[in-house]
Specification:
This protein has 291 residues and is mostly helical. It has helices spanning 2-8, 21-25, 32-64, 74-77, 82-98, 107-126, 134-154, 160-188, 201-224, 226-232, 241-257, 264-270, 272-290. The protein has 13 helices and no strands. The chain is globular, with a radius of gyration of 19 Å.
């Protein structure tokens, strides 16, 4: 059972919290119905994400066996057979698409988003992840689909600023992860992915800087935009930019100085400094928006 849980990678479900961003930024965090509908979309994304991880582990098993850590993954190590992993992926994906149908009115639309996410990620596992730059853009687009699912489930209209910030922030983290892959390739000569030679440290440093800068500018513009000020009846949201700046700088420090950007989820779960920044940003945003 432990091997199957490991195959599902429940620690990666943290990424699906993006489903709740429409609720948070839409000022509906205290509305029980919005939270319930958001939870349905969240669980559906957890199921489909685990299905994709099962498929990915089957496809990557040969290369995973060459990696010092990944060779211990259930499929690569032989603890879970290829057939069982694929069967589990099919069951999880079916459940993920069926679950949103419990949502009134827009359930089929949420199910369509889940299906689109599954198809795109199957294509990613089979081919797209071998295409440099396109691969990280597809990863970032997956988080935009999480936003869209949360929006459709709750009926909260997405701001174009939130969509842009989500894409840019997750692109920034994906590029940071690629930097870690390049470092491992430079140090060991082992290709963790076929497209790794189409990246280098200089390119990634510039790309990370650009995306971090644009993300910050986009966030500041969001907090001072007339649309947001009018909707929330406050002009103080710009103050939360302080935590966004510090958070981005900390992530860049972990990436460039400490060279520990291999897993964004691991960073969020283990870096106390970054956790404190996220909590302070959330608390400040909540106090300004809801109190």
């Amino acid at each position: 059972m432990r091997q199957y849980i490991q195959l599902l990678r429940p620690q990666q479900w943290l990424k699906n919290i993006f489903v709740f961003l429409p609720v948070f930024f839409g000022g509906a965090l205290l509305h029980s119905r919005s939270l319930l509908l958001g939870c349905i979309a969240f669980v559906a994304f957890c199921l489909v994400a685990s299905a994709i991880y099962c498929l990915n582990d089957v496809i990557d098993a040969p290369s995973d066996r060459l990696h010092e850590k990944k060779r211990h993954r259930p499929v690569a190590s032989g603890a879970v057979s290829t057939t069982r992993a694929l069967l589990l992926a099919a069951v999880l994906c079916t459940a993920a698409i069926a679950l949103p149908l419990l949502i009134p009115a827009t359930g089929w639309q949420v199910a369509a988003v889940i299906a689109a996410y599954a198809l795109i990620n199957v294509a990613y596992c089979l081919w797209i992840k071998q295409v440099a730059v396109v691969d990280v853009c597809v990863i970032a687009f997956g988080f935009v689909l999480r936003l869209l699912a949360g929006s459709l489930a709750t009926g909260i209209v997405l701001s174009h600023w939130i969509v842009l910030m989500t894409f840019l922030l997750t692109l920034f983290m994906a590029l940071s992860k690629r930097r870690d892959d390049v470092l491992k390739y430079d140090n060991t000569g082992v290709k963790l992915r076929k497209n790794i030679t189409r990246y280098n440290i200089s390119f990634l440093n510039q790309a990370i800087t650009i995306t971090a800068t644009v993300t910050l500018v986009c966030y500041i513009m969001y907090t001072v935009s007339p649309e947001v000020v009018s909707r929330f009846h406050t002009s103080y949201l710009y103050l939360t930019s302080i935590f966004v700046i510090v958070g981005l700088l900390r992530y860049i420090q972990l990436t460039v100085v400490d060279e520990k950007s291999g897993s964004p989820t691991h960073i969020m779960l283990h870096d106390f400094f970054l956790q404190a920044v996220v909590v302070l940003w959330t608390l400040s945003f909540f106090l300004i928006l809801y109190v």
